[in-house]
Amino acid sequence: MDEGGISGGRLRIDLGAIAANYRLIAGRVAPAEAGAVVKANAYGLGAVEVTRALRDAGCRLFFVAHLGEALALRPALPADLRLIVLNGLPPGAEALCAEAHVIPVLNSPEQARRWAEAARKTGRRLPAALQFDSGMGRLGMAAEDLAPLAADALFLSAVDLVMVMSHLACADTPEHPANRAQLARFEAAAALFPGIPRALANSGGAFLPAGFHADIVRAGIALYGGAPNRDGPNPMQPVVGLEARVIQIRTIAAGGAVGYGHSHVCERESRIATIGVGYADGLPRSLGNRGAAWHAGERLPIVGRVSMDSITIDVTALAPGRIGAGDWVELIGPHQPIDALADDADTISYEMLTSLGARYDRSYVDAATCNRGDTI
Ligand SMILES: *Cc1c(COP(=O)(O)O)cnc(C)c1O
């Protein structure tokens, strides 16, 4: 049998490209520090493998969304790497968080109170990041919450503030006026905490002017090969390759229909290939009759609906000998970058990556050895 085992699809994750993308961002934002966002299992690509590759590339600061993600990842990380929980400090989890050497983002005065209280109980100063909502309208403290904290000597003696942060809502649209407005509000708020490192930019923010980089950048999607903004060509190296196996090819007569709901009717006699991946593998139903796969340099349109475990593509453009059962077609790769597939699916690279699921044969291209195809 062809390489790729017994799954309907194979996913190749290039850790060397992730390391190269990290170095590109770190170089761009220096002297600001580049931290890496590895929430949601490193955007679906494997938090442990990705974090190790980033550590080897020089990253010392990591962000996840939930305390549970941090507790799962912490044992895989050397003690000197800092791990920050973006979604804040869950009630009752203070001791767990402190014992695991995980750093919470304090998103409300109530969380700040609980963390200071935990520090007094543990008898040591506990590190935390403080988030200010500069205009995202999602997480963080209001301006009027910050001044009392900045003046609270008890709080400041109990909590070691490692960063004051905020999050940009429109960083992927460089000319959006909200970016400058958020920067101005953030700088005013951060001025209440002199000497504490400031963090504002995500991937998009790393490609905004230097003022947005502040002291620390939190890069996510760009590390994984997604375009950091909507302007021009994507400067990042592609990280993910996704191929699906052809499991059968059938000839459908003119007027014949394909798939659930008969949403595609063949105008002429057509050769229809069924490939072994579907919406259970993170290929959304919105790709039905819209997206495509690639083989031998040919774009092969998806026809009919996306099923749970399979997708039908029209391969009539390829002569019968050029594609057959067992062959692989490209879904993400040189012909079809992740952002192109996401566009066809009416979504974004973030959602595509985090939806990929567990059924693929996964292989990691090792950053250190460049051992292409090595499976971890
Ligand atoms: C997810 C997230 C990031 C990373 O964003 P990208 O656009 O993927 O670079 C940074 N900061 C916060 C607060 C986030 O939630």
Report on this model:
- This protein is of the alpha/beta class and 376 residues long.
- The protein folds into two domains: 15-224, TIM Barrel, CATH 3.20.20; 240-336, Lyase, Ornithine Decarboxylase, Chain A, domain 1, CATH 2.40.37.
- 27% of the residues lie in helices and 23% in strands.
- The protein contains twelve helices and 18 strands.
- Strands 8-7-6-5-4-3-2-9 form an eight-stranded parallel β-sheet. Strands 1, 10, 13, 16, 17 and 18 form a six-stranded mixed β-sheet that branches. A two-stranded antiparallel sheet has the order 11-12.
- Strand 11 and strand 12 (264-265) form a beta hairpin.
- Helix 1 crosses helix 3.
- The radius of gyration is 24 Å and the shape is elongated.
- The two termini are 21 Å apart.
- The site of pyridoxal-5'-phosphate has 12 residues, from helix 10 and strand 9.
- Pfam families: Ala_racemase_C, Ala_racemase_N.
- This is Alanine racemase.
- It is an enzyme of class 5 (isomerase).
- Keywords: Isomerase, Pyridoxal phosphate.
- The modification N6-(pyridoxal phosphate)lysine is found at residue 39.
